[in-house]
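Exercise 7.
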Amino acid sequence: MARNTANVTIQDDTRDKGKVFVLTEMPASRAEAWAARALMALMSSGAQIPAGYERFGLAGMAEIGLKGLSGLKWEDAEPLLSEMMHCIQIVPDPSKPHVIRGLIEEDIEEISTRIKLRAEVWKLHVGFLKAVAPSIFAALETAKQSPMRNTKTSRQSSAR
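Solution. The predicted structure, written as tokens, is:
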């Protein structure tokens, strides 16, 4: 079975209007590694993460969402954000949809387009999880209702 893909046409009235991008999900091994790095970075940053999230891998990351990554230091966030862009290709001429190539710097002219495309990459990778793993999301909801913990504080407490 092929990896999931999505075509995104920019509709906003910007310099990128009408550009067509093709998003392709990461292979499972890369997605797992990405999610593990993101969770570890969040945990080491002292982010407030409900107990048990680390057991749910990519599903846990789906629930935390892109907003969770906003609290990371740039040196931790930048490689994760950069790797997301590797999932994006462009259709240089929308009248030839079969011609697809990797991005070059000049392909995206607006910051808002980059943000929108990252959000779409996120959805491509985790959007299906709610449909195929309702039990995981039920467990995550239960974990959310338990007291929040600061991972740095928890780690320091357990070291004593």
